[in-house]
Write a structure and sequence with these properties.
The complex is a heterodimer of chains A (424) and B (435). Chain A folds into 2 domains: 116 residues, Urease, subunit C, domain 1 (Roll), CATH 2.30.40.10; 290 residues, TIM Barrel (Alpha-Beta Barrel). Helices cover 32% and strands 21% of the residues of chain A. Chain A is built from 12 helices and 16 strands. In chain A, strands 1, 2, 3, 4, 5, 14, 15 and 16 form an 8-stranded mixed sheet that branches. An 8-stranded mixed sheet of chain A has the order 6-7-8-9-10-11-12-13. In chain A, helix 8 packs across helix 9. Chain B has 12 helices and 17 strands. In chain B, helix 4 crosses helix 5 and helix 4 runs parallel beside helix 6. The two termini of chain B are 26 Å apart. The chains are: A alpha/beta (424), B alpha/beta (435). Chains A and B meet through helix 9 and helix 12 of A and helix 1, helix 2, helix 9 and helix 12 of B.
Chain lengths: 424, 435
């Protein structure tokens, strides 16, 4: 009896230490023997990655492993940087048909004040599923209206919103008025669209003068302060170029209008969607504006464009010299991010470029390439160990480190399966 | 412009239509049921596979397709979709078995071409899920450019659509005026039982009438029962001339339907979508009921919130006949991608994964004698991929039905190039005109 109690106690302690191990990483972790694909720089056969204090302390072939390091034997595996989903609803949508579980969209046309990260649900069932497929960060984004709100950057680990948020605000989302009929959206008359674009311009103009009045009032405390204006207040970082703008736009003509709009208004723009980008590749290239592609699980809106228009679009834009990133545009299928990149590769995009489109390019586009997007010394240790190419459907992910932490790779998928396996 | 392109595509088919005889040379042949030939040929004569092997001598004058380094697989079969139809749901009433998809075929639906571009040669195109008892579905081959009559696969089983759960009870329909019975899973079950009971009664009425008519002394004033097309369809189901294909999500509602099928004695061929199949593998396997599912599309409604990606592989391993379906005109072109995911989530072998989109749906539709694998004697329905069809980097390059090439990427690229050239020329002319 006492023996049994002892065994239980031992198991309990073991479990406890195991769960603690999941939480508290050892001081130094050494990943040894994997083929390292740093994405930036040459691949390293059987290399070593040292992780210290959540960061990549060293990476290479001739790296000395400290005696007190926890060594992870990774021979035969491949080490990649964690993937970044550049347009995601992770933590904002749970079950899309149930309004109560959807927090990705506000009512009204101008909502620059809303922040996606403030609706973030850290224990969304979709987050572990995505993480287990090698996705370590996501740009979560509000939609709806003309100005939808602020997108934030999250890491796919943490118990609270605070623990998950990397950046509260990485971009303002503008859903650009469209003159083209597009995927379910009714075509609207050209005048209506121009009117809406004018409205946007007018609003930005107001934000500029609001900012100016505030600045003047700040310098001279005898002057009256302007009335607080929520909309204009949150557009200040946009008009002064601090905060980039994600402009959702699909059709060729709309893309051209959006580029002109961004240029005139001196916005730091990122285009999103851009399904007809291949028609205006030169214009996009010349604008210097980067592009985030939407889900490639879509059909071209026009039969004339050819059946593969959505699939070949990234390859065409890449060849033209446009900086790009891929996105899942989803919560429940955020895990599929790598397959959008692979699909583009099947239709003309260089495979290495496809990989960059889910790692270093999104990091650059969102201004976080100092901390993520590649396996380089000094960056956060977001590392994926896989038994093959991470863009491949059949590849199994073995470890996902997020800022040095070896995260849990099971999700509701495994929990439910195990539960019902017990039936028999 | 659209019409121009459609017509030009149609015209193009007559150019690259090779007729019924075809020799595919030097491909990596994945027969799915009879192993892999690393470098082999497939000979099709009169639309039927005559020979599969190495170095098949080319009959004189036969069209030859060089598949060197490419993957040759049986045409993909989609066990559940709604393409090539003018309508999907007759939702004015909850009980509509008299409705037939056969009557609303649309041979000009561009989704047929989309299907071909993803290697799909055959689909089971179905009534929607608005009604507890929907309409009769139909199996088609994706013969783009042919008439709807020519697309019908007459060898297939006759199937009747049923639907359970959120859709027939209208759980996600916002702002409906009057609520339609049923509004609960109780009602859905009850209304199906009601209709099947009526059908039984109807059959009995006819049996009695015919018995009386055939008797030595038929009663005077013997009048036949009123003919009822709705009841005729259900009678066909109860007589085994049709099988049920039942849209279901939850494990419990599916088991209730199994009970109904036993109560009334009809065959359930397949549960559709059923994300919770992994919870009741024992029951499904024991009843010999197949499932036609998404690999991982989930959480779009409450009853889909436990749709784990292991469902396909786990159910396969438990002896259930599993197929992967598109349910529409987009996923249909990447069913081979879904098949590959069943290797990652649950560890199926390559052949097992490919079976999910070839021979398994063929069995479910009763067409495994003519399609679903590369075997001598089956129809020459074939898809050719540039890389292994289970790789994320693969692309379908050619789709062949009964020896006829219906999709040819090389041809498509050529056409597109010509069209773009023409477009540029037109633009130049326009600019020139302005000057």
């Amino acid at each position: 009896m006492r023996k049994r109690a002892f065994i239980f106690a031992a198991i309990f302690v073991l479990c406890l230490s195991f769960s603690l191990a999941q939480e508290k990483s050892p001081r130094i972790i050494a990943i040894k023997g994997a083929k390292i694909i740093p994405v930036v720089g040459e691949d390293i056969e059987e290399g070593i990655i040292l992780i210290k204090e959540g960061k990549i302390d060293d990476v290479g072939k001739a790296v000395t492993i400290p005696a007190d390091a926890q060594v992870i034997e990774a021979k035969g595996l491949f080490a990649y940087p964690g993937m970044i989903d550049s347009f995601s609803f992770l933590g904002l949508q749970e079950i899309t048909a149930v309004r109560a579980t959807v927090d990705s969209s506000e009512t009204g046309r101008f909502n620059p004040q809303v922040r996606a990260v403030e609706a973030l649900r850290p224990d969304s069932m979709h987050i572990p599923v995505a993480r287990a497929n090698g996705i370590t960060a996501a740009v979560v984004i509000p939609t709806g209206g003309l100005i939808s709100g602020q997108a934030g950057l999250i890491r796919l680990a943490g118990w609270t919103p605070d623990e998950m948020v990397v950046k509260n605000s990485v971009a303002m989302h503008i859903q650009f008025p469209s003159i083209s009929r597009f995927r379910g959206r009714e075509a609207q008359p050209r005048e209506e669209t121009s009117k809406q674009v004018e409205e946007l311009r007018e609003l930005l103009k107001k934000a500029r003068s609001y900012q100016k009045i505030k600045e003047v009032a700040q310098k001279n405390t005898l002057l009256p302060l302007p009335e607080f204006d929520e909309t204009l207040e949150f557009l200040i970082p946009v008009v002064n170029g601090q905060l980039p703008v994600i402009i959702s736009v699909q059709a060729d003509n709309d893309i051209k209008t959006a580029i002109k709009f961004a240029k005139d208004e001196k916005l730091r723009a990122i285009l999103f969607g851009v399904t007809e980008g291949w028609k205006v590749a030169e214009e996009i290239k010349n604008s210097g504006i980067p592009v985030v592609f939407g889900s490639l699980y879509a059909m071209p809106s026009k039969w004339d464009d050819g059946y593969d228009a959505i699939y070949r679009n990234p390859g065409v834009l890449a060849k033209a010299g446009v900086k790009f990133a891929f996105s899942s545009s989803s919560a429940s299928l955020a895990k599929d991010l790598p397959y959008h990149a692979a699909k583009a590769a099947a239709f003309g995009l260089d495979r290495r470029e496809a990989l960059k489109g889910v790692t270093i390019y999104p990091a650059q586009i969102f201004g976080v390439d100092e901390m993520m997007g590649s396996l380089e010394k000094g960056k956060k240790a977001n590392i994926v160990l896989a038994d093959g190419d991470i863009l491949e459907l059949r590849t199994n992910i073995k470890h996902v480190f997020i800022e040095g932490k070896d995260t849990k790779l099971s999700s509701i998928y495994e929990e439910l399966l195990e539960k019902f396996k017990k039936r028999y | 412009m659209l019409r121009f392109f459609v017509l030009s595509s149609l015209a193009a088919f007559s150019c690259f239509s090779f007729g019924q005889n075809l020799l595919i040379k030097n491909g990596i042949i994945l027969t799915v049921t009879k192993g892999t030939i690393p470098k082999g040929d497939v000979l099709i004569i009169g639309g039927i596979i005559k020979q599969i092997g190495e170095n098949i001598p080319a009959p004189e004058g036969i069209k030859i397709i060089d598949a060197t380094g490419k993957y040759v697989i049986p045409g993909i079969i989609d066990s559940h979709t709604h393409i090539a139809l003018i309508g999907t749901n007759e939702s004015s009433e909850p009980i509509t078995p008299e409705v037939k998809m056969r009557d609303v075929l649309n041979a000009e639906d561009t989704s047929i071409y989309t299907a071909l571009s993803g290697g799909v040669t055959m689909v089971h195109t179905m009534h929607g899920s608005a009604n507890p008892i929907g309409g009769e579905n139909i199996v088609l081959k994706m013969k783009w450019g042919k008439t709807s009559e020519e697309m019908i696969v007459h060898e297939a089983l006759r199937t009747l659509k049923f639907a359970l759960g959120e859709n027939p009870k209208q759980a996600n329909v916002a702002g409906m005026g009057t609520l339609r019975y049923p509004q609960s899973r109780m009602g859905v079950n009850a209304i199906i039982r009601r209709e099947l009971s009526k059908a039984k009664n109807y059959m009995e009425q006819w049996d009695r009438y015919l018995r009386a008519k055939r008797s030595k002394n038929p009663p005077k004033n013997l009048t036949p029962p009123r003919k009822d097309l709705r009841m005729e369809q259900l009678a066909d189901l109860l007589r085994g001339k049709m099988v049920a294909r039942c849209h279901s999500y939850r494990a419990d509602e599916s088991l209730e339907f199994v009970s109904l099928s036993k109560e009334f004695g009809f065959k359930v061929a397949c549960f559709e979508h059923i994300p919770e199949a992994f919870k009741i593998t024992k029951e499904l396997a024991a009843e010999g009921i197949g499932i036609s599912i998404f690999l991982d599309s989930w959480a779009y409604k409450v009853e889909a919130s436990e749709g784990i990606a292991y469902n396909a592989a786990y159910c396969t391993q438990k002896g259930i006949l599993v197929s992967l379906n598109s349910d529409g005109g987009e996923r249909i072109r990447r069913l081979f991608n879904d098949a590959a995911k069943a290797m990652k989530y649950g560890g199926l072998s390559e052949d097992e994964a490919l079976k999910l989109v070839t021979i398994n749906p063929a069995v479910q539709l009763g067409v495994d004698r003519i399609a679903g694998s590369l075997e001598v004697g089956k129809q020459g329905d074939i898809a050719i991929f540039n890389e292994h069809p289970l790789s994320a980097y693969t692309r379908c390059d050619m789709t062949i039905i009964e020896g006829d090439v219906y999709f040819d990427r090389a041809q498509y690229l050529k056409e597109r190039e010509e069209m773009e050239k023409k477009k540029k020329e037109d633009e130049l002319k326009k600019k020139g005109g302005k000057k």
